[in-house]
Design brief:
Distance between the termini: 104 Å
Pfam family, one: ZnuA
Number of domains: 2
Radius of gyration: 26 Å
Shape: globular
Number of strands: 8
Helix content: 40-55%
Strand content: 5-15%
Protein name: Zinc ABC transporter solute-binding protein
Structural class: alpha/beta
Mean pLDDT: 88
Organism: Gluconacetobacter azotocaptans
GO molecular function, one term: metal ion binding
Order of helices and strands: HEHEHEHEHHHHEHEHHEHEH
Keywords: Metal-binding, Signal, Transport
Length: about 300
């Protein structure tokens, strides 16, 4: 009787082991799990997802484009999500202070805090709707790629490749902005609040009635004199477009909308939250399309 310890292996079994070893060598070391990233707003989360690619797992908290982000209240489940993040992205500028409370609630976690307003040198009184400023978007994307590379040094080259692709995808948007500026710089417009202010400035539009906009953004009632000025600009057709925040409807904005339409002034509706399933670039391109269409209408088209 032969001893089991000296039993000869079947050739096919040996071949199987050899093939497994070859495949393991060719595959290289297993890739680490994606870096958990939490963004306060979907717009920053989408950009992070484009730059981070498969190296990150992004969760965005404010993801409902039909709700008013100024009325958002964080929940315990949001806190648990933030507590598991390695990088937390916030807009800053007083826009999403609740994210600071969530990150400070758990002293055991110390995620990298990437606050866009700090990256771009935002100061009190500046417009906090930074996603409508392509320069701020470029700065954020570059900073995010670097933060990820510091935590995943072996993925730096891949992150930089995706960053270059993302930055290149903004060039057509910049070209459209430049073309609009060449044609419409100095054209007077009005707005219910300054959500689109960064883009309006980039196009060179002459924004009127900004005191009214600041009051609405800060949650206070505009002064009667400011209301009268804005309504006079609409009824007197002193502006070419009225820009309205589609996520903060109120009797005040409804009245402005009615006055503008009665005067034949086009109303451009913009939002603060990126619609689900849409890329940042496509969202901005759509807003520029609608702006171009509104500005192209003759002042007395109504």
């Amino acid at each position: 009787m032969s001893c089991p310890a000296f039993r000869r292996h079947h050739p096919l079994s040996v071949l199987g082991f050899v093939l497994l070893a070859v495949f393991a060598f060719l595959a290289g070391p297993a890739r680490a799990a994606p870096l958990p990233v939490v963004a306060a707003e979907t717009v920053w989360g989408d950009i992070a997802r484009q730059v981070g690619g498969p190296d990150v797992a992004v969760t965005s908290i404010l993801s409902n484009p039909s709700s008013d982000p100024h009325l958002f209240e964080a929940s315990p489940s949001n806190g648990r999500i933030v507590g598991g993040a390695r990088i937390v992205i916030a807009n800053g500028g007083g826009y999403d202070g609740w994210i600071d409370r969530l990150t400070n609630a758990d002293a055991r976690t110390h995620p990298v805090m990437l606050v866009v307003s700090r990256q771009v040198g935002w100061r009190d009184g500046d417009n906090p709707h930074l996603w409508y400023d392509l320069a701020a978007v470029r700065t954020f994307a570059t900073a995010f790629a670097e933060n990820c590379a510091e935590l995943m040094p072996d993925r730096r080259a891949a992150l930089q490749d995706r960053l270059r692709v993302f930055l290149a995808s903004l060039l057509p948007l910049q070209a459209r902005i430049d073309a609009l500026r060449a044609r419409y710089a100095g054209v007077p417009v009005a707005a219910s609040e300054p959500v689109f202010g960064g883009m309006a400035r980039a196009v060179g539009l002459a924004m009127r009635d900004e005191a009214f906009q600041r009051a609405v953004m800060n949650g206070t009632d505009p002064a009667p004199s400011d209301v009268a000025l804005l309504e006079g600009d609409l009824t007197g057709r002193h502006v070419r477009v009225l820009i309205v925040n589609d996520q903060t409807a109120s009797p005040v904005t409804d009245r402005l909308d009615g006055l503008a339409r009665a005067a034949g002034i086009p109303v451009l509706r913009v939002g603060e939250s990126l619609p689900q399933g849409m890329r940042y670039q496509d969202w901005i391109a759509g807003a520029l399309d609608r702006l171009s269409g509104a500005l192209a209408l003759p002042p007395d088209h109504g």
